[in-house]
């Protein structure tokens, strides 16, 4: 007994630490307050706002597999595109236009693709995995291209119509309803993602990221966990794609393209990986800057993105949130 | 379809495919060796090839250099410039994970595309071939485009030269040793870092040479760096990083299949290339001639 007594307060402290860590902090309300505030402050920019929210969701899904499980993928657009085509074709070809069930179908289709490809691919690592994810996404792209009778090829799927939300809320020309709809979907899925990363399952993912051999050694079912999180992330990316198709009433092959996979990766890294809110910051800042700068001069914008990416990798590997954290710590030290 | 017609079409597809495959080989072989040596995922390799294309075109149109000399200059200039990138940027990330390497080199690709668009504009660059390369070669039953024949010949010479360099010279032996086992090579006194710089320069130079040769075959726009990147990566991954033999085999297979697919089944040809790549990598994750 003497040996166990000192352990009791220690484990209580550990439990308290773990509870405190995943308790909602006041600061976490900030992004949602900003999003709601933007709804009232910038009613003319709701179309852009909706696309930002969708991209945040997409980046968030990538954060689950890249930031937490450490899976480097160059083909995440495969799931976004699958969801977008699922929701789009459901409405355009089958005439099913109820929005929420459309999103569910988008998520399920993407999850199915994620499960099958993840089951096969996640046994590999390194260059092979990188190439396999890349080739899978491009294969889907080429499949969409080959079945132009169904997907419309480069011209895309048109004629996507969405019924009013819950049969009540009509969509106005300025996208106000879409914005709130996308915000609500993002909030729900964010809470799911947050629940996942602070669960024992999420801790196991971090373990796999940090030291996969050790996780094998302690008997963790590594492959099953990776496939699980890959499927969940694919479903989230699929829902983002579904929102994209519904809000634009249009899907083209660019939803599956390599550019989309690369851009979401860049946004996430700029914001900061493995911390959920990096997706918010990265996607929002990237898209806001793109909206103003890319029109001004596409070349300078592209050069700037490349330069910032290189600098981030060399000097600010933890992204913008990491920089903010460092600045905050430095301020605190100064204060004392 | 008569037999003669079939033969004529088959020879045409084969020659075009071989010429395309040779360009893919010349561009990708440097990437293969550097990936095999350092395991560095260099997505900017296509940007060096593109730079080679632009250097070739510029030297020919602005300074009036002949095609062959311009190619040699592209090889030397881009090869030398690549060392600067290697020492300043790449060398910092040899021990970093793939993600960092991927991000750094994607950043470089973006910068390269933007810079070349700014200087040259987004439209394809015209290139004027010397007269002996513009005509056709008569085989009796059909004629062949002279440039394709030239490409296959250049490719064959490059394969032979690289084979000799790798198998019969001391530098080649050192590179093979370092690919096989970097630590062992280091411990018997091979300066792997310097070897890598040299290999990187040679590989980027070859990419530039390939880029110059590719202008007349594949066209040259600032998106070249990303448009064909997947094909370069497939050559490396399928052939096996670090294997010249693998790069030759993979590049020729890819060139011929892609060309045949475009000709015979234009809608879905590319789909089967990626499907075949995935199946091959699932069976042999280290590539055809790679080491596990």
What do these coordinates show?
The complex is a heterodimer of chains A (336) and B (292). With 336 residues, chain A is mostly helical. Chain A has two domains: 29-253, no CATH class; 268-336, no CATH class. In chain A, 74% of the residues lie in helices and 0% in strands. Chain A is built from 15 helices and no strands. Chain A has helices at 7-22, 30-41, 46-68, 77-92, 99-121, 126-146, 148-151, 176-197, 200-210, 212-217, 222-248, 258-271, 277-296, 298-315, 319-335. Chain A is globular, with a radius of gyration of 21 Å. Chain B is an all-alpha fold and 292 residues long. Chain B has one domain (3-283): ABC transporter involved in vitamin B12 uptake, BtuC, CATH 1.10.3470. Helix content of chain B is 76%, strand content 2%. A two-stranded antiparallel sheet of chain B has the order 1-2. Chain B starts with a helix and ends in a 9-residue tail after the last helix. Classes of the chains: A mainly alpha (336), B mainly alpha (292).
Summarize the structure.
Chain A has helices at residues 7-22, 30-41, 46-68, 77-92, 99-121, 126-146, 148-151, 176-197, 200-210, 212-217, 222-248, 258-271, 277-296, 298-315, 319-335. Chain A has 336 residues and is mainly alpha-helical. Helix content of chain B is 76%, strand content 2%.
């Amino acid at each position: 007994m003497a040996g166990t007594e000192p352990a009791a307060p220690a484990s209580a402290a550990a439990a308290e630490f773990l509870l405190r860590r995943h308790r909602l902090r006041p600061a976490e309300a900030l992004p949602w307050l900003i999003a709601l505030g933007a709804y009232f402050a910038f009613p003319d920019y709701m179309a852009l706002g909706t696309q930002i929210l969708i991209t945040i969701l997409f980046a968030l899904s990538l954060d689950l597999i890249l930031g937490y499980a450490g899976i480097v993928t160059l083909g995440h657009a495969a799931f976004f595109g699958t969801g977008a085509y699922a929701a789009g074709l459901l409405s355009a070809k089958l005439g099913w236009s109820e929005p929420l069930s459309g999103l569910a179908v988008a998520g399920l289709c993407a999850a199915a693709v994620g499960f099958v490809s993840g089951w096969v691919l996640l046994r590999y690592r390194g260059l092979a995995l990188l190439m396999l994810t890349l080739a899978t996404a491009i294969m889907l792209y080429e499949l969409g291209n080959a079945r132009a009778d169904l997907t419309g090829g480069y011209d895309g799927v048109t004629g996507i119509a969405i019924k009013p939300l819950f049969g009540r809320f009509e969509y106005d020309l300025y996208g106000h309803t879409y914005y709130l709809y996308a915000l609500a979907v993002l909030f729900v899925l964010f809470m799911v993602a947050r629940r996942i990363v602070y669960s024992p399952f999420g801790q196991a993912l971090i373990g796999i990221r940090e030291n996969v051999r050790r996780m094998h050694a302690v008997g963790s079912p590594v492959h099953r966990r990776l496939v699980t999180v890959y499927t969940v992330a694919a479903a989230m990316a699929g829902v983002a794609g579904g929102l994209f198709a519904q809000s634009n009433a249009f899907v083209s092959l660019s939803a599956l393209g390599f550019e989309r996979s690369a851009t979401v990766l860049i946004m996430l890294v700029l914001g900061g990986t493995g911390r959920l809110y990096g997706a918010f910051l990265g996607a929002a800042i990237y898209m806001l800057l793109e909206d103003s700068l890319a029109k001004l001069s596409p070349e300078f914008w592209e050069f700037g993105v490349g330069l910032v990416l290189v600098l981030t990798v060399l000097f600010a590997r933890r992204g913008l949130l990491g920089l903010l954290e460092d600045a905050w710590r430095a301020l605190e030290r100064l204060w004392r | 379809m008569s037999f003669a017609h079939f033969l004529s079409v088959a020879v045409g597809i084969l020659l075009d495919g071989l010429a395309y495959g040779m360009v893919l080989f010349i561009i990708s072989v440097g990437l293969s060796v550097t990936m095999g040596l350092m395991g560095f995922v260099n997505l900017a390799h296509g940007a060096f090839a593109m730079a080679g294309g632009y250097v070739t075109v510029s030297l020919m149109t602005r300074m009036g250099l002949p095609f062959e000399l311009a190619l040699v200059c592209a090889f030397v200039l881009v090869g030398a410039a690549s060392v600067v990138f290697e020492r300043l940027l790449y060398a910092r990330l040899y021990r970093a994970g793939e993600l960092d390497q991927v991000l750094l080199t994607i950043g470089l690709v973006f910068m390269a595309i933007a810079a070349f668009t700014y200087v040259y504009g987004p439209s394809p660059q015209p290139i004027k071939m010397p007269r002996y390369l513009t005509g056709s070669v008569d085989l009796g039953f059909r004629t062949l485009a002279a440039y394709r024949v030239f490409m296959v010949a250049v490719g064959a010479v490059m394969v032979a030269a690289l084979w000799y360099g790798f198998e019969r010279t001391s530098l080649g032996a050192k590179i093979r040793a370092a690919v096989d086992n970097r630590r062992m090579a280091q411990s018997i006194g091979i300066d792997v870092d310097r070897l890598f710089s040299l290999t990187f320069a040679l590989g980027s130079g070859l990419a530039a040479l390939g880029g110059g040769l590719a202008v007349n075959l594949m066209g040259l726009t600032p998106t070249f760096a990303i448009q064909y990147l997947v094909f370069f990566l497939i050559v490396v991954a399928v052939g096996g990083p670090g294997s010249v033999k693998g790069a030759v085999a993979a590049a020729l297979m890819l060139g011929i299949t892609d060309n045949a697919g475009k000709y015979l089944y234009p809608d879905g040809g590319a789909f089967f290339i990626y499907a075949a790549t995935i199946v091959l990598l699932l069976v042999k994750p280290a590539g055809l001639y790679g080491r596990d």
